[in-house]
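We were asked to recover a plausible sequence for a given structure. The inputs and outputs are reproduced exactly as logged, with field labels preserved.

PROBLEM: sequence recovery
POSITIONS: 72
GIVEN STRUCTURE:
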């Protein structure tokens, strides 16, 4: 049962990684911190991954689900 659940999770994650190949978020960073004076700025960060990584995860999930069905 655990292997099948893991396989389904990998399938969902793989599909999501193929559709969205990156995501961005905003992080507040301190530029100046001199006692009572603080200056900060919002910086946008982006995390990217190749689409084939999502495909690899998707195929791995399919293999795990297929193997867990055969063993029952």
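RECOVERED SEQUENCE:
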């Amino acid at each position: 049962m655990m292997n099948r659940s893991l396989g389904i999770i990998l399938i969902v994650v793989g599909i999501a990684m193929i559709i969205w190949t990156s995501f961005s978020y905003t992080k507040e960073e301190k530029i100046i911190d001199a006692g009572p004076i603080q200056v900060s700025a919002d910086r946008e960060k982006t995390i990217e991954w190749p689409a084939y990584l999502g495909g690899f995860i998707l195929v791995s999930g399919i293999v795990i689900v297929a193997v867990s069905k055969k063993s029952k």
